[in-house]
Amino acid sequence: MQLHINNKTYETDAEADTPLLWVIRDDLDMTGTKYGCGLAQCGACSVMIDGQVVRSCVTPVETAVGKNITTIEAIESDELGKRVVAAWVKHQVPQCGYCQSGQVMAATALLKHNAHPSEEEIAAAMVNLCRCGTYNAINAAIRDIAGAGDKV
Fold first, then answer.
1. Contact 65, 9 (CB under 8 A)
2. Structural domains of the chain ordered from first start
3. pTM of the model
4. How far is CA 101 from CA 14, 35, 82, 149, in A?
5. Per-residue buried b or exposed e for 39-61, using 16+ beta carbons within 10 Å of the residue's own CB
6. What residues does 60 pair with on adjacent strands?
């Protein structure tokens, strides 16, 4: 199978039902996408497929063939992704950092589809879990990018 990841084409001989996460991490050695729960609950494994955030731990690799996959390794090659990472630094979002690649992917996907989300839209999109509880900083970073500051 051929996968188009971060604007490069990769070959994999993984079984069709292998979770995309394991192909990305184990076969292609892109370890920024994290394993969290394996049940699509936590979001640490979030990547974008054709601009939509997906949980790669439950996404069979065969469903990603022929699509554009973006992982955290390439997020700063996108102008909006670069702004998201800068806002994460500015607002000192990460504590342990484990979930942050998935959080950045979710925030970038949200802002690509809605440049000025409401507080409710942010809450609906940002459902990844953070054991450190950095949700207020995450929301502040997103509001900052959206141009709302603390007004939302």
1. no
2. 2-74 (3.10.20.30), 75-146 (1.10.150.120)
3. 0.94
4. 24, 11, 13, 23
5. ebebbbbbbbbeeebbbbbebeb
6. 19
> Tokens for 12?
């994999």
List, run by run, the mean pLDDT of 10-residue segments along the chain (152 residues). 98 98 98 97 98 98 98 97 97 95 98 96 97 96 83 41
In order of 2, 3, 23, 116, the CA distances from 66 in angstroms are 7, 7, 15, 30
Are 16 and 60 spatial neighbours (Cβ–Cβ below 8 Å)? yes
Cβ neighbours of 31 (radius 10 Å): 14
Strand, helix or coil at 28? coil
What would the two tokens of residue 36 be? 């969290």
